[in-house]
Amino acid sequence: MSAPRPAVVVTAGGWAVAGLTAAGLVAGSLLGWLELVTAGAVALGVAIASALFLVGRTAGRIEIAVLDRHVVAGGTAAVAVRAINDSGSRRGARTAELAVSSRGEPPRLEPVSLPAVPARAAREVQVEVPAVRRGVIRLGPVVVVRRDPLGLARRESVRSGAEELFVHPATVPLAVRSTGLLRDLEGIPTSDVTDSDMSFHALRPYVPGDDRRHIHWKSTARAGAFLVRQFEQTRRSHLIVVQSQSPDDYASDEEFELAVSVVASIGVRAIADGATVSVFSGALGRTGGSAGAPGVQPVRAAGVSARRAARLRGAASLRRSGRLRTSSPRDLLDDLSGVEEMPGAARLTSVARAVGESAADASVVFLACGSTVTARQLRAAASHFATGVEVVAVVAEPEAEPALVRIDALRITRIGYLDDLVRALTRAVGV
What we know:
Layout: E1 8-10, H1 12-31, H2 34-54, E2 61-66, E3 70-72, E4 75-85, E5 94-102, E6 108-114, E7 121-131, E8 135-147, E9 153-158, E10 163-168, E11 188-194, E12 199-205, H3 217-223, E13 227-235, E14 238-243, H4 253-272, E15 276-281, H5 306-315, E16 323-324, H6 329-337, H7 348-358, E17 364-370, H8 375-382, E18 390-396, E19 403-407, E20 410-415, H9 420-429
Parallel strand pairs: 3-10, 14-15, 14-17, 17-18, 18-20
Antiparallel strand pairs: 1-9, 2-4, 4-7, 5-6, 5-8, 8-9, 8-10, 11-13, 12-13, 15-16, 19-20
Helix pairs in contact: 1-2, 4-6, 7-8
């Protein structure tokens, strides 16, 4: 939580005038220098005159509304700032600032010129806020600013609340076939045998407790003993997407962002197709203490830039949700807007182990990671899922040439650009 803003801010020029006033009046009086006393008196007069510009009541209400609360990284968001005058007199034009802050970056101020507002009326202006990077941006509050002509000081008055803007990751449209979602409506037969399902397997002798509805009467009449049907157990197609949040699994911020876009593209396609889909983002396999807890300081990894390390420390205080919402594409993209690398988070193998234990009914699994994850580690991650589960690892390595490697049942595809994902998945699972 940010510290409260001071009501009056004195600029460097203001402090210089204050120092000249004190030095001129005090030192001039002690030394008997009339010129110094005069300079101090003039500086005092300037300070008083500047202070008079800050005096006055800042009335009226200001509301902000995000016209499009969900935008894609690289775009702009339109924010409406509405000035409301509830009084019986006209309010003049004012200067204000809209605070814009996101995790890992210093807050910035967007200037807003509020128009004059007639009595008991409202006026609205729009501010374009650039959404350069994926994330959750906090918009507000709006601060009305009073300044003196010489710029010695400014008075700030917070006049609104704050809103959130979700900057979604970039996605690429995928064909249904490329996500491996073409399944029979009846499900996928397995080697497990059950007494009640849809896919007939064999007959077996009746034992006490069997459901009489499954007795095969024609075979019973021929055999002279009760025989009951057995079925192959079927399961619905369950697509799982897993991404690690460990900085050790990515060589750069660009790799992490590309991996997030891969997760978003696959997840959005699966949700749109009505498939059963689960998306996990690193938290289930988390090891050690909670980053950001008292006494626990994230360690800067070797080779990580100072800027990236600062952003990672800020991300350590995020809520660890683990399983992202998949009720709609927008819910998934909103959750992915807040996904960040977390120092101390478990690596992909540990996350895959936890997901494999909690989602035993998986049929297709996508693993998204960076170039620092080796093929051996990907094989270890894939081994935590049941036999027969299709596992596809998508390695994000910006500007790399697309490649596909098959290791037993595991398919490892490498992409350098998000547009490569369509062709890579078609080659990997388009069978």
